[in-house]
Amino acid sequence: MEIEMRIKGLVIDPISKMPIVVLEEIAGDRMLPIWIGVFEANAISLKMENIPTPRPLTHDLIKNVLQKLDAYIEKIVISDVLDNTFYAYIYCHCNKGKIIKIDSRPSDAIALSLRMEAPIYVEEKIVEKAHSLKFDEKLEDSEKLKNWLENLRPEDFGKYKM
Amino acid sequence: MEIEMRIKGLVIDPISKMPIVVLEEIAGDRMLPIWIGVFEANAISLKMENIPTPRPLTHDLIKNVLQKLDAYIEKIVISDVLDNTFYAYIYCHCNKGKIIKIDSRPSDAIALSLRMEAPIYVEEKIVEKAHSLKFDEKLEDSEKLKNWLENLRPEDFGKYKM
User: pTM for the whole thing?
Assistant: First the structure.
């Protein structure tokens, strides 16, 4: 089953110092943290804050390519997590009426979903794993991180800066 | 007139510390340095060195999107330079036989041309401006930079590292 989620915000992991995009369930209270790269975090952050850029960034280029080819994104689905790597698919509706499924990193899929106003879904099993925060066995401080994530206040999400 | 060029290599500008992608004329000896972002330089570098990545990077995603939509890149054209900003277009051949022209930063267009084996063209006027290296009026050390670029040895281009 796919759970619809939305972006709660971007934060910096206090342990690894990497950006985390935090998704939250729309019809519930579960959260999903996904560690992403700095560049992709920037692409998400600029769009979330509606900061205009003089030239199209790489994800704006993808949006322009899709629009020029009469294609749009129906949804993105975060489909799996293997060895702490998240997998996603972009479901694209092309002008022939066909649905095309494109393999993507979640960060690119999320950056694109923001630009094309496409809904974000996550497979139930991943939301469950993340909820128990046992998916990262290597993370010694997982309990601490879980508490930290749960206690983040809305204003903490505004602190993401490159 | 459009001049066909190819990538000579990537170097770090000793003054600004920013990556430069250096293009060279195929049928001549003119060069064109284009200052680009670190992320885009990485996308170009990884493909030039054929370094595999476990998951598709953002430019690989664009390639996958185009291929799934039966589109291919006919050519990229670096079309203009205004206030030290380069402009480019990606010419895309879609399945309806139509040619679509997409506005792009040169760095994205080049990263994509490498992945889709598309030729790189530059408007003659830009090659000329770059050849005289007067296009960057703010660059005090333009003469020094010109000499430095002209005296780069093939092995210097291998030194680009993130």
Answer: 0.86
